[in-house]
Amino acid sequence: RKEVEQDPGPFNVPEGATVAFNCTYSNSASQSFFWYRQDCRKEPKLLMSVYSSGNEDGRFTAQLNRASQYISLLIRDSKLSDSATYLCVVNLSTLGRLYFGRGTQLTVWP
Amino acid sequence: DGGITQSPKYLFRKEGQNVTLSCEQNLNHDAMYWYRQDPGQGLRLIYYSQIVNDFQKGDIAEGYSVSREKKESFPLTVTSAQKNPTAFYLCASSKREGTDTQYFGPGTRLTVL
């Protein structure tokens, strides 16, 4: 089983749609969780950290489910500019390295 | 402006040549990392460094070498021993190694001719 797994997509949604991505991780002792965004041929950029209680940043909501070992990202009212690849990032042990998922590709069409 | 710079943006190399990719940060971060990304693939860790004069192998270190003589700099050398060097190389840094958020440079695209 891979350390971090994501559905690669692609997800193709119209503007204004709500879309959700899930990511599963293998190590129950993982402590830190992040979502990064990567545009085509660019570097990954931090979108948001994921906290145990869940957190929201504008149209983006991240949640953590420790019992089932997955994190999710919900994007409401999708914009054309949301088109990108979304990377799930997890540390697999206390004070361990970060591991990156392969990413989920999102295309928002007009 | 604080950030991470990588140079060059594009690099072409002939087979059998060594090449060095530059990575500099002025964020005063202790930890620095090198990743490789292939088309449709996730990031794979090549090397990382927690402090000056110390570095550790990642998952795919064979054919690569690094140095960390200064806190701000973490150059990566792609040697002729690396069988498939054509890829997108990303440098990152974090305040400490481990759980802290990593920030990335713009990357270097290496093509072996």
Explain the overall architecture.
The complex is a heterodimer of chains A (110) and B (113). Chain A is mainly beta. In chain A, 0% of the residues lie in helices and 53% in strands. Chain A has strands spanning 4-6, 11-14, 19-25, 33-38, 44-49, 55-57, 60-65, 70-75, 84-91, 98-100, 104-109. In chain A, strands 2, 4, 5, 9, 10 and 11 form a 6-stranded mixed beta sheet that branches. In chain A, β4 and β5 form a beta hairpin. Chain A starts with a strand and ends with a strand. The model of chain A has no long low-confidence stretch (mean pLDDT 92). The mean pLDDT of chain B is 92. In chain B, 0% of the residues lie in helices and 46% in strands. Chain B is an all-beta fold and 113 residues long. In chain B, strands 2, 4, 5, 6, 9, 10 and 11 form a 7-stranded mixed beta sheet that branches. Chain B has strands at 4-7, 10-13, 19-25, 31-37, 43-49, 56-57, 64-66, 76-78, 87-94, 103-104, 108-112. Chain B has no helices and 11 strands. The A-B interface holds A 4, 8, 31-32, 34, 41-46, 49, 87, 91, 95-98, 100-103 and B 35, 40-43, 45, 48, 58, 88, 90, 97-107, 109.
Mean pLDDT of chain A: 92
Along the chain, the helix and strand elements of chain B come as EEEEEEEEEEE
- Classify the oligomer: heterodimer
**Which stretches of chain A are poorly predicted, pLDDT < 50 over at least 5 residues?**
none
Bulk shape of chain B: globular
Helix content of chain A: under 10%
What share of residues of chain B is helical? under 10%
User: What is the gyration radius of chain B calculated from CA atoms?
Assistant: 13 Å
Number of helices of chain B: 0
Structural class of chain A: mainly beta
Descriptive tags:
A: mainly beta; six-stranded mixed sheet; B: 113 residues; mainly beta; 11 strands
Topology summary:
The complex is a heterodimer of chains A (110) and B (113).
Chain A (H helix, E strand, L loop, with lengths): L3 E3 L4 E4 L4 E7 L7 E6 L5 E6 L5 E3 L2 E6 L4 E6 L8 E8 L6 E3 L3 E6 L1
Chain B lengths: L3 E4 L2 E4 L5 E7 L5 E7 L5 E7 L6 E2 L6 E3 L9 E3 L8 E8 L8 E2 L3 E5 L1
Parallel strand pairs in B: 2-11
Antiparallel strand pairs in B: 1-3, 3-8, 4-5, 4-9, 5-6, 7-8, 9-10, 9-11
